[in-house]
Amino acid sequence: AEACVLLGIKRTTFNRLVSDGEINALKLRGRTVATTDELRRYVASLPTARDARAARKAATKADRKAAMAAD
After folding, report:
1. Which of 5, 34, 44, 60 could potentially form a cystine with 25 if both were Cys, beta carbons 3.0 to 4.6 Å apart?
2. pLDDT of 15-35, one tens digit each?
3. Which residues contact 13 (CB under 8 A, 6 or more apart)?
């Protein structure tokens, strides 16, 4: 729960990130835990807001071109 608060995500999202291998976690007495270093590594791997917007914009532009080519 503490990792979820630090990351600002819900527990289900945390569990999905772990199952997808984006966050490496351990089982400790039945609890899923991630180290502080691992959470820092995950956050550092995320794109910046500017990069994410640029990627979405490029994808949208490519989708429009592909749709026009299909017509």
Report:
1. 34
2. 999 999 999 999 999 999 999
3. 4
